[in-house]
Give the backbone structure.
Amino acid sequence: MKINTAEFIISNSDVSKCPNEPLPEYAFIGRSNVGKSSLINMLTGRNSLAKTSGKPGKTQLINHFKINGNWYLVDLPGYGYARVSKSTKETFQKFITDYFERREQLVCAFVLIDIRLEAQKIDLEFITYLGESGVPFCIIFTKTDKISRGKVDQHVAAYRKQLLANNWEEMPQYFVTSSTEGTGREKVLEFIDGVNDGIFKNQGFI
Ligand code: GDP
């Protein structure tokens, strides 16, 4: 997919105020500092569409970007900086869970995982939450330039093992990316293009 236009539309913390258009949308979420802003900028080919920042937890809003006039890329707040929490609902702020539970336009979430780290409890909790809520999702491994190709495969295999141990029947669709090297860009955009094609052919989308 060629990205012809990428425009910022609106930021808010209320799902009912998200754009009221029947366009498919793809949400990007992960722990703070996972490389989400860099990935969004890499995918869209825009250097500063999403704000990259050394300061964790800075972007605390739902940000809608309209791509090519016919789909939305949604940048969600990074999680993982909440203090001790009693439940998943409290760990993931209510407006985020509202977004996943109520946003009809959402067709796929991309959960970003830093390839270098062992599976983190909060990511596994979040993936379980998506599964239980029936939200389709893919995994995007980030920062893969930071380790060798062989290690990338090993870490993906370890992640798969961890998910299977957490009662997943199979590894969800995943992408291996590096924002500094542009790795995975074509594959992620092709995936979105394919899903969009299916949706645009089907008059019944929301
Ligand atoms: P966010 O908080 O998830 O939006 O993360 P950022 O995109 O702001 O990235 C956090 C830090 O990781 C920054 O210092 C980035 O330069 C760095 N970073 C992000 N993606 C990559 C990547 O693919 N490769 C490398 N080497 N560094 C990255």
Summary: The chain has a mean pLDDT of 90. The longest helix spans residues 149-165.
